[in-house]
Specification:
Helix content: 40-55%
Shape: globular
Strand order of the largest sheet: 10-9-8-11-12-13-16
Radius of gyration: 24 Å
Largest sheet: 7 strands, mixed
Number of strands: 17
Distance between the termini: 10 Å
Length: 585
């Protein structure tokens, strides 16, 4: 296990020559100095010219930008760089985050997941399968690091809007942790991507000769949750303070896992809680764009397309905000919501008929709270709901591309001077509408955000630039993770999630709001994460059932930022100190 100094950027290693060049954590490539080349047996193994990390970065970017590569080819080129030189990889990403985020994460990561088996070259992270039950604890000790701060785990059952991709979902766990480092300053040597291989119900993958996962269908809940319980117990046995983020789990199991562990372990579900927080922040800022205050959310009518884990998570986050900040009761707040799924509007007819017989379909966990009383509207289409309800806010979390049709967007424009339209499904092919479609249908008046990036729209008549905001969870989860890890928190509470949303919203200036921005510029993401992290620690310190490092519990926000900022990872080559294997450090 290499040792890094806490006071200077130095590392003790046990490798030389070709072995060092193959170690992505400590390989500097052409940046090795002359003395390092002599000390580590590298002279003659590298081209003679020494390049600085700045020169290496410029060289790589020139190749990436001028070679005519597609986004997935750029993704592969960046992955190859990560495999050979982690420090340079993060230098490229962090200094060009606005350009690189769509390549290393959504929308390109969706294509990477779909092609994971075909292009598989080198394992990254850990895999646990149903056949590994009873062996998870010793397996955890196969990971070479004794210090892990964050684990992102998926079972590949609901990847973005692409469905069940099985073990190929590992690319999501890897991509999320890249953003934890690039946007949140988490040390990449302390991050572990995990995929739970519980089979797949994807017929194409089951019949594929190149699929690298176990080619069996997904099993029963008993076997599945036995594996998940053993996995969770094992990782917390080795790393008691690790934060586990659940990512892209199938709806029912996502809710069950979160409910089971959220009061026992330091964990959260990004699809449910992260999406909820980023939506609350966007809605707060959208209200500001309309000249309203956050309290005015109680006057909004909110239609949500998608009533799975993400849709319910967003509704719950907005509802909790109304309760905690606007003093509404649960019964009062829920009246502001209309949820629509693939069967139409959700009403109480879903649960039980007027004659007392069972309703028309099984309810997904959490849906019961949002069943409308107007049973005569059961199953109404989204267009019919929009026409009848006249919502002020339309949110898309359906994973169904093109469902915000021009007619629906036009209807939103008829009923609102500035309709709020968030098409949040990923990747781009699954988004409910593009920015251009929303702005064209509303004559440029919409306040728009989407999960995947779209270009701004220029109104053809007025020349007005209509802002295409990106409602990406990367504005939320890196700050939550950074604050929870450095604060040594015990839990991620609902109040902490809400605090993250308000913290994100507070980072926008009045000028940005006037320009139609509801999320900050992506180039400021590390500052945003730092701000959120400090607020997360402050909130956790207020909670009797939580825990915060006593040295941080009484610090002000400014002093917390001063504490956190120097502890955020920065991609700099360390001074390397050689110790022969077996020699004490």
């Amino acid at each position: 296990q290499p040792h890094r100094s806490r006071t200077v950027n130095a590392a003790t290693i046990h490798k030389t020559g070709k072995d060092l060049l193959k170690d992505s954590w400590f390989n500097k490539g052409t940046a090795f100095s002359r003395s390092e080349r002599d000390r580590f047996g590298l002279r003659g193994l590298l081209p003679p010219r020494k390049l600085s990390i700045q020169q290496q970065t410029a060289r790589f970017l020139e190749h990436l930008r001028n070679s005519g590569m597609s986004d997935i080819e750029k993704y592969m080129a960046l992955s190859a760089l990560q495999d050979r030189n982690e420090t340079l990889y993060y230098k490229v990403i962090i200094e060009n985050i606005k350009e690189m985020a769509p390549i290393v994460y959504t929308p390109t990561v969706g294509i990477a997941c779909q092609n994971y088996s075909a292009v598989f070259r080198q394992p990254r992270g850990m895999f646990f399968s149903i056949d590994d039950r009873g062996e998870c604890l010793p397996m955890v000790y196969h990971w070479p690091s004794d210090k892990v701060d964050i684990i992102v785990v998926t079972d590949g059952s609901r990847i973005l809007g692409l469905g069940d991709l099985g073990v190929q979902g590992m690319a999501i766990s890897v991509g999320k942790l890249v953003l934890y480092t690039a946007a949140g300053g988490i040390n990449p040597t302390r991050a572990l991507p995990v995929c739970i291989d519980a089979g797949t119900n994807n017929i194409a993958l089951l019949n594929s000769s190149v699929y690298v996962g176990t080619p069996v269908t997904r099993g029963n809940d008993k076997d599945y949750f036995e594996l998940m319980d053993e996995f969770m117990d094992s990782v917390y046995e080795r790393w008691p303070n690790v934060l586990v983020q659940f990512e892209d789990f199938q709806n029912e199991r996502a809710v069950a896992l979160l409910q089971k562990y959220r009061q026992k372990r330091l964990c959260f579900n990004d699809d449910i809680q992260g999406t909820g927080a980023v939506t609350v922040a966007g809605v707060i800022c959208a209200l500001r764009c309309k000249g309203l205050q956050f309290q005015d959310i109680i006057n909004e009518r909110i239609v949500i397309l998608g009533a799975g884990s993400a849709g319910i998570g967003v509704a719950t986050a907005l509802l909790n905000y109304m309760k905690l900040r606007c003093n509404l009761t649960d019964e009062e707040a829920v009246k502001r919501f209309w949820l629509v799924d693939d069967k139409g509007l959700l009403t109480k007819a879903r649960a039980i008929h007027a004659d007392g017989t069972p309703g028309i379909t099984k309810l997904f966990p959490g849906q019961d709270k949002y069943l409308r009383d107007e049973v005569q509207m059961e199953g109404k289409t989204l267009y019919e709901v929009v026409k009848s309800v006249k919502p002020t806010i339309l949110l898309g979390l359906s994973g169904a591309g093109g469902t915000f049709t021009p007619e629906i967007c036009e209807e939103m424009g008829k009923n609102n001077k500035q309709p709020i339209i968030f098409a949040m499904s990923n990747p781009s092919s699954k988004t409910e509408c593009t920015a251009e479609q929303a702005f064209k249908a509303t004559d440029g008046r919409a306040i728009f955000a989407s999960g995947s990036p779209f270009p701004d729209y220029v109104h053809p008549s007025t020349g007005k630039v209509c802002k295409a905001n990106q409602a990406n969870n990367m504005y939320i989860f890196p700050g939550i993770g950074l604050g929870a890890v450095l604060g040594k928190c015990r839990l991620i509470s609902d109040a902490m999630i809400l605090t993250a949303a308000e913290s994100l919203a507070s980072t926008l200036t009045s000028e940005q709001i006037e320009n139609g921005m509801v999320y900050p510029d992506l180039s400021d993401i590390r500052k945003v994460s730092l701000h959120i992290a400090a607020d997360i620690i402050l909130q956790a310190a207020k909670e009797p059932t939580n825990y915060v490092d006593p040295n941080l519990a009484t610090l002000s926000h400014d002093n917390l930022e001063k504490y956190i900022e120097p502890r955020m990872y920065k991609p700099e080559y360390p001074t390397l100190i050689y110790r022969p294997p077996g020699v004490d450090e």
